[in-house]
Design brief:
By secondary structure, the protein is α+β, with helices and mostly antiparallel strands. The chain is built from two helices and three strands. The chain has helices at about 35-45, 75-80; strands spanning about 1-10, 15-20, 65-70. A three-stranded antiparallel β-sheet has the order 2-1-3, covered by helices on one side. The radius of gyration is 15 Å and the shape is globular.
Length: about 100
């Protein structure tokens, strides 16, 4: 489950920090409000190809970080281990 998203210098976003509570979260807004930009940013955090059009004009390098809560025994934990990536516990420490 996605718990946190930080976006910096992506398209129109200077800096944005979002925390997602447990349960259903819905993004709504007017046309042009930036919903698709958030999805593009999440795609970058998940390893999507970066395109020059996604970097905010006049900004620094575009950065996106995402945090996920992963259930014990989830298949993705084995994938992380296979690639030498230790999962972080709730404190941000490996473990």
């Amino acid at each position: 489950m996605l718990t946190h998203l930080t976006v910096r210098d992506v398209v129109l976003i200077d800096r944005l920090v979002l925390d997602f509570p447990a349960g259903l979260c819905v993004l709504t807004g007017e046309t042009g409000a930036g919903k698709s930009i958030l999805l593009d940013a999440l795609g970058l955090a998940l390893g999507g190809r970066a395109e020059a059009r996604l970097v905010r004009a006049g900004g620094g390098p575009a950065t996106v970080t995402a945090a996920f809560q992963i259930a014990a025994g989830a298949p993705v934990l084995a994938e992380l281990e296979e690639h030498g990536i230790p999962p972080l516990d709730d404190s941000g420490d490996g473990g």
